[in-house]
Specification:
The protein is an all-alpha fold. It is built from 11 helices and 2 strands; from the N terminus they run αααββαααααααα. Strands 1-2 form a two-stranded antiparallel ribbon. A hairpin with a 2-residue loop joins strand 1 and strand 2. It is elongated. The termini are far apart.
Length: 227
């Protein structure tokens, strides 16, 4: 390779210095923007988002009490001095508590039989917590099954089960998916596969300890039992 085809570091540095001198105002302005953006973001979080989240937490306190008492209508819509999760989700949706309010509102709607509304709220909820996020996905599955949309129900049950496998939520939603496949869709092959997965991988869980009867029933329906 010829020497003149290589990049000369000194020449490159000189060109950079010339560019900075020629475009000093532009470069200075660009650096100021780079520095200002994270500072503005920190200020936004500290002086705007944190106080709003505190407001949402204060408002949610009574709604959470009603939710714990299964008073889902009051928890959802509030009354008098009680602000419901629906209002908190709408007005504080970009805060942590507002995000959680979508989950609470979705569960309230599910318990009240308002399945389409529940799906809308639950799909707006997001969480890095494996248990809560899996429960939200599973609740969407429950809504779809109640709406006789069994294929969608199975899809969300499996999303809940597979999100991050664990001994709590995974067997719960594997079983729900298998029951839906067996009872609603008559897909015995897939149902048996999921029942068998619970039996093999989660034998010590509550679902694992009672799965034998479900597996036996599905195999009987599919004529797979030994004579």
């Amino acid at each position: 390779m010829e020497t003149n085809s290589l990049v000369n570091p000194k020449e490159l540095l000189q060109k950079a210095e010339q560019f900075v001198k020629k475009h000093r105002q532009v470069v200075t302005g660009a650096l100021a923007v780079v520095i200002a953006i994270p500072l503005l973001w920190m200020a936004y979080q500290k002086w705007y988002m944190e106080p709003r989240n505190e407001e949402a937490l204060d408002l949610a306190f009574k709604a959470e009490q009603y939710f714990a008492l299964d008073s889902f209508e009051l928890a959802l819509n509030g009354r008098g001095d009680v602000t419901g999760f629906a209002t908190i989700a709408e007005e504080y949706g970009n805060t942590e508590m507002g995000n959680l309010a979508h989950y609470y509102a979705g569960i309230c709607c599910l318990r009240l039989g308002r399945y389409e509304e529940a799906i809308g709220y639950l799909k707006k909820f997001s969480s890095s917590d494996v248990i809560v996020s899996s429960m939200a996905l599973g609740a969407i599955g429950d809504c779809y099954r109640e709406l006789n949309k069994s294929e969608e129900a199975v899809e969300y049950y499996l999303k809940a089960a597979r999100r991050r496998p664990n001994n709590f939520t995974t067997p719960i939603f594997l079983k729900k998916a298998a029951l839906t496949l067996e009872e609603d869709l008559n897909d015995l092959k897939k149902a048996i596969a999921l029942y068998s997965e619970i039996e093999r991988d989660y034998p010590t869980t509550r679902e694992g300890q009672e799965i034998t009867k479900y597996l036996y029933r599905a195999r009987a329906k599919a004529n797979l039992l030994d004579d």
